[in-house]
Design brief:
Distance between the termini: 61 Å
Order of helices and strands: HHEHEHEHEEHEHEHHEHEEHEE
Structural class: alpha/beta
Helix content: 40-55%
Low-confidence stretches: none
Oligomer: single chain
Number of strands: 12
Length: 290
């Protein structure tokens, strides 16, 4: 040990992994690379994985089952974290290859042995809608990616509906505005129609949509929040720097990543865990658009 200190010896993890028949590598697979909350999730994963000292992680964007399978086998990954809405058939197949799996933002029926970490998205939708109502908006609208394509958006929408019901607000079909994808340009296009629709308050199920709306309001010299109030979702990087700064719902993306890293390392190191489902609290971050 004295000699190791004097020589500043560092263990060779590659050699150690050969002896232990472990790679000391964790794989992180994204459903879609353009999801704006991924940066915070990965930051949380990195904090936990690298703090351990013996593990590192690799990432890839999902393209096909065969590519993911090949990637796992070639690198002999010790565990897997999946971010997004992966199907149960896909996860069940990979579970036979690697039993240690954690899913983030996956709302499908749970598979035994897989850990699921999600946000309280329905509560978040409720809080955003309630904030608009308390700010004097009598008929809040909601802007979302097509609900049939996103369980995440569906849950936020259910929170919106629940709040309207609790406050005795009649829901009308035109109060839901659906767009094909979560995109800044889609938000800009919707923003151009808000005044003609008589909309005074809008919940956006993604910050990127809200930022697009804000851009159009600025270009049209429509005052926010005086004329139209807006609330986004996810508290993505940069949302606090807009003018006006964006009120949003924080869904705990970094905390989800931290929890995923913590639990996966326990599974890999064969440490018993008692829970396989975790929900991270949502909270309203009030800024200048409300």
């Amino acid at each position: 040990l004295d000699a190791m200190d004097q020589l500043e010896y560092k263990p060779n993890l590659a050699a150690k992994s050969l002896v232990q028949k472990k790679s000391n590598l964790i794989g992180v697979v994204f459903k879609e690379e353009n999801d704006n909350s991924y940066e915070k999730i990965v930051k949380g994963i990195e904090k936990q994985i690298r703090a351990n000292g013996e593990y590192d992680f690799l990432t890839m964007t999902y393209q096909s089952m065969s590519l993911v399978e090949d990637w796992i086998q070639k690198r002999n990954l010790d565990g897997l974290i999946f971010i997004g809405d992966f199907s149960n058939n896909f996860l069940s197949y990979l579970q036979k290859m690697k039993e240690h799996i954690v899913c983030i933002d996956n709302y499908n029926e749970q598979i035994s042995g897989i850990v699921y970490i999600n946000s309280e998205d329905t509560l978040g939708g409720y809080l955003a809608t309630e904030a608009l109502l308390k700010a004097g908006v009598t008929e809040p609208f909601i802007l979302s990616v097509k609900l049939e394509n996103s369980e995440l958006a569906n849950r936020r929408y259910l929170g919106y509906l629940s709040c309207l019901e609790d406050y005795g607000i009649e829901y009308k079909e035109n109060m839901l505005i659906e767009v094909p994808k979560e995109d800044f340009l889609e938000g800009k296009l919707v923003g151009a129609t808000l005044q003609s629709r008589g909309i005074k308050g809008l919940v956006c199920t993604e910050d990127i949509l809200a930022l697009g709306v804000l851009k159009t309001l600025y270009n049209f010299e429509i005052s926010c929040p005086k004329e139209i109030k807006i609330i986004g979702f996810d508290n993505i990087k940069g949302s606090e720097y807009t003018n006006p700064s964006l009120t949003t719902v924080e869904t705990g993306s970094e905390r989800k990543g931290e929890k995923a890293g913590e639990l996966l390392l326990k599974l890999v190191d064969k440490i018993e865990i008692k829970k396989f489902e975790y929900n991270i609290d949502a909270k309203l971050i009030k800024r200048e658009t409300l």
